[in-house]
Amino acid sequence: MTTESSRKTDRDAVRADARRNRERLLTAARAVFAEHGIDAPMATVARRAGVGVATLYRHFPTRDALVRGAFARQMETCGRALTDALAADDAWTGLRQLVETVCALQREERGFPSAFLKAFPDTAPEHARVRGAAERSLATLVRRAQASGAMRPDVHPSDVVVALVAHCGLVAALPDDGAASRRLVAHLLRSFRADPAAGEPLPPPAALTLRGLPATPAGHRRPPGGA
Fold it and tell me: For residues 155 and 191, what is the distance between their CA atoms, to the nearest angstrom?
């Protein structure tokens, strides 16, 4: 191997290592911000990613840059899910996978998107544009699934949004109960099927009883002295 080839190989290895570190940092940042809020220490993100703080700052010189990068990656994930759903040969399969992906993101992200948009209001117009495009794609998926005979003809795209909001409420109340989340998603999808019996078997039930219900809605505290 020539000296020049050796240098090129070394540079490629450095670039590949840098890309891996950046990916690890973005993944770690999403998890940390979801668990602790966007004001979580940068050092916590670095530890979660398994890199040094200096490496973090080389990729993201400021907290704002890291938070924006983590949110952008989240939007990219949602965008890929929509693209994959629209490209699916079977419309119902595409819609089901989209709903499952979004609900999985809700479990992971918790309040991160809301906190991000509150902290960075300048991103609201772009977020609204992306959301509008997503709504149009969702309407297309619903029409295709209905045309194939797999989806009830009386389902409206807003019904799917209601299902996502309902799942979001479950995640807020029971953030660590993945079994309850998966079970609810399966029930919601079955409610959209033209033939519910044609759906896949339900996932295992959650280990949940009435005694496990939150005493008050998530995010609200009972006033002092309240019943």
Answer: 9
Q: What is the dihedral of CA 116, 44, 79, 177, to 10 degrees?
A: -90
Tens-digit pLDDT profile for residues 50-97: 999 999 999 999 999 999 998 888 888 888 999 999 999 999 999 999
Residue showing tokens 């794609």? 137
Tell me: the pLDDT tens digits for 11-43?
Answer: 555 578 888 999 999 999 988 988 888 899 999
One-letter amino acid at 157 equals: P
Give the amino acid at 169.
G
Three-class HEC string of the chain = CCHHHHHHHHHHHHHHHHHHHHHHHHHHHHHHHHHHCCCCCHHHHHHHHCCCHHHHHHHCCCHHHHHHHHHHHHHHHHHHHHHHHHHCCCHHHHHHHHHHHHHHHHHHHCCHHHHHHHHCHHHHHHHHHHHHHHHHHHHHHHHHHHHCCCECCCCCHHHHHHHHHHHHHHHHHCCCCHHHHHHHHHHHHHHHECCHHHCCCCCCCCCCCHHHCCCCCCCCCCCCCCC
CA distances from 49 to 8, 29, 75, 164, 169 (A): 27, 8, 20, 30, 29
